[in-house]
Amino acid sequence: MALEIRQQLKLSQQLVMTPQLQQAIKLLQLSRMELMDVVRQELEENPVLEEGGEDQEPQEIPEPGEEIEEPRPDQGASDEVREVGGDGADVAEIDWRAYLQEYTAGGSVADTYEEDEDRPSYENLLTKKGNLVDHLMWQLNLSRLENGEKAIAAEIIGNLDEDGYLKASLEEIAAATDSNPAGVEDVLKSVQEFDPAGVASRSLQECLLKQVRQLDMEGSLLELILRDFVAELEHRKYQAIAKALNVSLEEVLEAAKLVTELDPRPGRAFSSEEIQYITPDIFVYKVGEEYVVMLNDEGLPNLRINSFYRNALVNGAEFDEKAGEYIQDKLRGALWLIKSIHQRQRTIYKVTKSILKFQREFFDKGINYLKPLVLRDVAEDIEMHESTISRVTTNKYVQTPQGLFELKYFFNSSINTTGGDSIASESVKNSIREIVTTENTRKPYSDQKIVEILKLSGINIARRTVTKYREMLGIGSSTERKRYF
Question: Which of 2, 90, 206, 443 is deepest in the core (most CB within 10 A)?
Answer without folding.
Answer: 206
